[in-house]
Amino acid sequence: xxxxxxxxxxxxxxxxxxxxxxxxxxxxxxxxxxxxxxxxxxxxxxxxxxxxxxxxxxxxxxxxxxxxxxxxxxxxxxxxxxxxxxxxxxxxxxxxxxxxxxxxxxxxxxxxxxxxxxxxxxxxxxxxxxxxxxxxxxxxxxxxxxxxxxxxxxxxxxxxxxxxxxxxxxxxxxxxxxxxxxxxxxxxxxxxxxxxxxxxxxxxxxxxxxxxxxxxxxxxxxxxxxxxxxxxxxxxxxxxxxx
Length: 243
What we know:
Elements: E1 2-8, H1 9-20, H2 32-39, E2 46-54, H3 63-79, E3 84-87, E4 89-98, E5 119-120, E6 126-130, E7 136-146, H4 148-161, E8 167-171, H5 178-184, E9 190-194, E10 216-219, H6 222-226
Parallel strand pairs: 1-2, 1-8, 2-3, 8-9, 9-10
Antiparallel strand pairs: 4-7, 5-6, 6-7
């Protein structure tokens, strides 16, 4: 049974960062094929295709981050840990938003209001801006990775519908993948591995007997990741010291 593995790179990275903590080292040099092979579980299954969907980071304030990612992508390709790296892209823009009394993550937050008029420095830079009804405003830089979830869905469905794989594993906890996973389960068994600390998203579960059956879902553990590290170095490509 040939198994295809479809990985949302940023969902994997941020999910595992929450598990390990932001300062823990020694886990980011991940052998993605080894991770999937250890958890495949279907009788006679062989991981024959690994598709890693990500985007090249391009933060001008952190060039070292860009270099570390380039090392990892090169190591993945040289080691054979992936068969395809599918790249999305980053958007960066300025966005004006209302300020709130409560901190991030608060539901139905209270808007912060100010009765003072807008003020500027002599250079024309606003230091306090309000809407017409007195809500304090802030302009922030937004950076958003685009395309990884769509690329995961596209490769998953293409490989399933063309018969390239007889089972599939999706590594992500993005509920936006619920429909393509549901469609794939009509044709092949599909497993879902959640890399984060939250429960597996309900949209990704369904029933083990949906469609052709044989489906499962679970969470990647820190032990799974530590047991599946690339050699260091890989073809002369060394793991970044902070990883």
